Amino acid sequence: MSSSKAASLAARLVEPNNPNRSRRDGSDEEDDEDAIFAELEEEIENNTSAAIRENGLQILKQEMERMKDMKANEHGTYTEITDEKDVVRVSAREPRCIIHFYHTNFKRCEIMDKHLAKLAPKYYSTRFARVFVENVPWLVEKLGIKVLPCVICFVDGVTKDRLIGFEELGNQDGFETAALELRLQQSGVISKGNPNALQPLFKVSSSRQQNDDDEIFDL
After folding, report:
1. What is the model's pTM?
2. Taxonomically, which superkingdom (predicted)?
């Protein structure tokens, strides 16, 4: 198996919203994923080791199911959650989740929306969502949200970090998306590359250790 070609195909497979992905004319996104999977499958089957072939094919099938499940759960897009119980379920279920608590009367919330919408397709393994504070009064009180915009980062159901207002982004409305991206990377809720993809086949970065003062978001 050509490791460079396999790595390239795998990157395209696990980043379905990557703008650099090529797509055949007239095909939809699912067809494109199936074509990439078939090509990567062929690469693995060409390997001379039967054990590697069998293991690699099993990993790819599992990865394909994982990606379809994430797509069904709105990964890769910046969506709104309106029900308070759904917010709790999403934050507890998703391995990585970013939730923006906003109000329509705040201009800076609109600015935050714009930047998060740009980052959502780039970090497919992280769920991005926003919540209108008037729809979730219990959560606003429980989480102690008093200043907007408020972006809370969850990792494995635990509140890892929160970004309040624009103080850490230069305290100005014209900050770059890259500044927010770097700040979120420091929280461990997003990371360069895909830390969950095809781990037995390709080297990945180590996961971030949990701090003792992490807040468990539990009903």
Report:
1. 0.63
2. Eukaryota
